[in-house]
Specification:
elongated; 5 strands; 5-stranded antiparallel β-sheet; alpha+beta
């Protein structure tokens, strides 16, 4: 292994953010320690399993429609956007995540899957929701005075 490969491996494995790779069929092939911490699954539990493990059931149909379209067309409107969606942990709890995705290609330039870098933003989302509720309450009090 070259120094560069060792550096890449350490960055991926030791990132606090989840870094994962799923093949064209949405089967998980890479799952780092950040993904273990965020989602509660050990690498051995998810390798070879579907992304359905972390996609809430009510969003799965839409997720797979988009995923398969991207695999066919090679185009994603989310390439540069930060996506904000709910996800599900091993224990069944819902969390809020933000992530970026990228298409991964082989040496023949064929799409072989997607990689994602995911951050758990559940606490920030809760704080923002509480703040919005407080603002709304203050605005209604102010309007009634």
């Amino acid at each position: 292994m070259s120094d560069t490969e060792m550096i890449y491996q350490q960055i991926i494995e030791n990132s606090q953010d989840a870094i994962l790779f799923a093949d064209r069929d949405g089967i998980i092939e890479l799952w780092n320690s950040g993904a273990e911490a965020i989602f509660g699954y050990k690498k051995e539990e998810v390798q070879g399993k579907s992304l359905d493990l972390i996609v809430p059931e009510k969003l799965r149909q839409r997720h797979w429609e988009g995923y398969h379209t991207v695999m066919k067309t090679g185009k994603s409107r989310y390439g540069k956007e930060l996506l904000k969606v709910p996800a599900i942990r091993k224990d069944g709890t819902s969390i809020s995540v933000e992530f970026t995705i990228m298409l991964v290609r082989n040496l023949r330039n064929e799409i072989i899957g997607t990689a994602a870098i995911i951050r758990d933003v559940t606490e920030r989302w809760k704080q923002e929701k509480e703040l919005k509720q407080k603002i709304k309450l203050l605005e209604s009090k102010s309007a009634s005075q």
